[in-house]
Amino acid sequence: MSEPHSSAWPYPRWIAHRGAGTLAPENTLAAFRLGASHGYRMFECDVKLSSDGLPFLLHDDTLARTANLSALAADAKPVAGHHPWHALSQLDAGGWHSATFAGEPLPTLGAIARFCIANGYFLNIEIKPTVGTERHTGEVVAQHAARLWHGVEVPPLLTSFDIAALEGALATQPELPRGLLIHALDGQTWAQWLGHATRLGCQAIVCNHELWNPASVALAKAAGFRLLSYTVNEDIEAQRLLDLGTDGLITDRVD
After folding, report:
1. pLDDT tens digits for 47-80?
2. Which residues are identified as catalytic?
3. Contacts (Cβ under 8 Å, ≥6 apart) of 19
C-alpha cells in the first residue's frame, strides 16, 4: 500500500472511502487522519458547493444523516447546498458517529488539499452536485482543484456519476484527470458507457465492483481506460478484482 503500483498510472491501488470508511465520521479530516494511520496514501471524498460557491465535503444531498443541525435555524432548508458556508461551518459533523468525534467540522476542499499535499497523499474527488447545479459544480470544483494543486506533480482525480458535472470540469480544467462513475448499466451497453467516458476525456472508469467481469474488463481495457471499483469490503471480492487486473479498489475496510 505504500507505493503506487504503476509508474504510468500515478495513483495507489488501495483507496480509503470517504477518508476512513466507517471507523470515523465520513468526509472529515478526522477520517483522513485515521485512514492515513492505517497506511493509506489515497483517499476518496465527496465534494459539493455551498450556496455561496465554496466547495466542501459531504456525500448526501441533505445534512440530516451526518451533521447536528442545532446550529441552524429551526426552519432551515434541508438541502445542504442551499446554505452559505458560514452556516455550514458551524455544524458538528462528527457527533453523529460517536462522542470521540463530537465537534468535528465539515471540511472545505481547501482544508483537505492542504492535508493531502503536506503529506504527499493522493485524492479522488467525487463531484456531488446539488440538483440544478450540475455543470456549475463541475466547473467550480475543477477550478478550485487546479488552483489548490498548482505545481503538485500528481493532481486529484475528478470523478462523478453526473455527466454534466464532468462536462463542466472538462470545459474548465481539461488538464485534470477525470473518471466516469457507473452504478448500473441502466439499459445502456458497455459500449455506450465507454463512449460517454471517451467523449468526456476520462482516464478511468470507476464502477460498482459487481459490474466488473472478464468481458467488461476486456472492453474497458481495450478502450484504454484504467479500472477502479467501489465499495470493496470483502477479501474474496478484492482478490477477484485483483485477479481481473483492475487498477484501484475503494474500501471502507481501512483496518
Report:
1. 999 999 999 999 999 999 999 887 776 667 789 9
2. 17, 59
3. 26, 27, 28, 29, 30, 31, 32, 34, 35, 43, 45
